[in-house]
Amino acid sequence: xxxxxxxxxxxxxxxxxxxxxxxxxxxxxxxxxxxxxxxxxxxxxxxxxxxxxxxxxxxxxxxxxxxxxxxxxxxxxxxxxxxxxxxxxxxxxxxxxxxxxxxxxxxxxxxxxxxxxxxxxxxxxxxxxxxxxxxxxxxxxxxxxxxxxxxxxxxxxxxxxxxxxxxxxxxxxxxxxxxxxxxxxxxxxxxxxxxxxxxxxxxxxxxxxxxxxxxxxxxxxxxxxxxxxxxxxxxxxxxxxxxxxxxxxxxxxxxxxxxxxxxxxxxxxxxxxxxxxxxxxxxxxxxxxxxxxxxxxxxxxxxxxxxxxxxxxxxxxxxxxxxxxxxxxxxxxxxxxxxxxxxxxxxxxxxxxxxxxxxxxxxxxxxxxxxxxxxxxxxxxxxx
Length: 384
Description:
The protein is an all-alpha fold. About 75% of the residues lie in helices and about 0% in strands.
């Protein structure tokens, strides 16, 4: 069994996207992503600028949503690259936790269950994003096949809306452009899910450590429960400080990513919702729905993942104070019972993930994103 919470897919993705620290290929991969994303963004936003007064507003919104999704990945990668030191600290803490794997039966069981859950969740997130990219591309191809006005290559819709400095005049150029765009979109989608899966893995790991600490607090002063390793007050304090440090590093690493995610996902969800609603009466409604519905779901899922992660961490951190209060602290010396009091007081300051250090991420924040997107859709429909 792998002695880590990170799945193989996430670990591989962290290497490919230049996030994994201190490996020779990191600089090469970062250079590749800077060149590729910068080039694609120039073409994508070139299309947005050129078609800002286009009569086909749905196509324009489609171009805006895909361009913003790529921009979001670019921002995520840059933030993670600049905060490499914090990511190293997180990896070191996780390694330390796994080094104590065989010291306690309960700890080993919690770590194993956490790792299995993190790997299953990562597979689901990545698989859904790959399906979204596939359906999005299939919807574009279906729209081209079903429209007699798109017989010539230069009149066909591309997977990604881009303004090129050349004309797509032949079938070979069109197929080449479509293949490159599908490859680019697939990598962008996988990059977004790798960053999201990393957050889920980190949150689940710290949640498992909180469960272990709560078990220690429950058994520390009980005369009927004897663990394989003597639980001391020093070990409890060390574990609590390690959990706080781990959670703070997660917040420092993801706070500005969360801020940009909430802003961009609100607009992207608005654009996709507008496309879905206006396409219901269109002749190629089936192709548009195939392209947009799963994309819409995955963007909502991304916002939900971040907000649920903040809610989960807050709820878990409250369990520490409850476990300390419910422990038989009255069986311990007065000096140790005072330390338990300090643990309870510190636990009242809950751990959380913030959005730009402005507001906490929670399920209430997710509902705010959905409400804001729905409001913007109503305004666009009224203007349209």
